[in-house]
């Protein structure tokens, strides 16, 4: 009997047969990756122009991150929070110092960080602000994306994300993203928080109007409301600064972090922010078996060290300017609009052009991996270790697949 190596089709068939169909991936089966490049099971190489939705800001298998993980794997990986371990305090201190915050609540997935922030904001509203029990409101933005739990989809405005998952959690008011007046009108004496993505990633890399985030800060200050910034995708160097809020010189009361915090190695998320707000949590009130585990903390510490150099923020800023300049040259040549900030762009394909899906598949055939969001937007978010020549290659491929429309 001769062993026949499984093909791309075999692997896809396995996925289709045994894994739930809650995603529609491109037909590429990745077997290895390094830096900005991945290799499929056929040995074909692709430039990664998505970076795990910014979970891979430092590229695949960054040597410093892998070394930190391997080192920790040889020591201790899990204790649960029943006991102390020697990485937790260091991780929390270093992350707090990097972010200029007081306290850190470590969790795992991004959705858990958002859930945690919702719980904290509510508890703060009852215990500190004096909102009557069970009446706290949180203002969110339309077209938001904050994760997939039942409470989070309760305040999604995306029908696909919500349909058939009710009954929903009450206590949220959605108003148009970018509209300060709408937020002001929605604030009451029961408002605990405004929860906002400083740049909306899933919605298509939507940057709000200049001054919007500053105005939200002002409304929060005037009304004793918490500003909660979901920087899970926009934060940690993606937009050219540590936080996307930094572009407007705005500080949040709470930040939710995730994705790149785990260095592309494992899920690590956190809520960071004001000590008097995070301080409302007492033992037994909230937690997670894996939250703040030694392996996560060791990798998270290595991520903090990379960010502390400022090198990745700078790369995103400089290469981002180059990316946006190049993409903007395609406007009128198959591209209707380019949005974004730093090394992050939403490329709106012109009417009459290929669908986002078709464009992504055509890019894949040309060796660049990208993914659409909604029908007509390509989401570009390369690892921040990418070179300028590689950025040019990716843009060239985008130009080819959208050309002629
Ligand atoms: C990805 C994302 C989340 C959810 O993170 P998961 O790790 O997928 O649960 C929440 N908020 C924003 C802005 C995100 O981009």
From TrEMBL:
Record CDD domains? OAT_like (cd00610)
Q: Give its E.C. classification number.
A: 2.6.1.13
Entry annotated with the keyword Amino-acid biosynthesis = yes
One GO biological process this protein is involved in is: L-proline biosynthetic process
Is Transferase set as a keyword in this record? yes
The UniProt keywords, alphabetically, are: Amino-acid biosynthesis, Aminotransferase, Proline biosynthesis, Pyridoxal phosphate, Transferase
InterPro entries noted in UniProt: Aminotrans_3, Aminotrans_3_PPA_site, Class-III_PLP-dep_AT, Orn_aminotrans, PyrdxlP-dep_Trfase, PyrdxlP-dep_Trfase_major, PyrdxlP-dep_Trfase_small
**Which pathway is it part of?**
Amino-acid biosynthesis; L-proline biosynthesis; L-glutamate 5-semialdehyde from L-ornithine: step 1/1
Q: Which cofactor does it need?
A: pyridoxal 5'-phosphate
**Domain of life where this protein originates:** Bacteria
NCBIfam families from the UniProt entry: Orn_aminotrans (TIGR01885)
Protein name as catalogued: ornithine aminotransferase
Which species is this UniProt entry from? Answer: Actinokineospora cianjurensis
Q: What is the lineage of its organism?
A: Bacteria, Bacillati, Actinomycetota, Actinomycetes, Pseudonocardiales
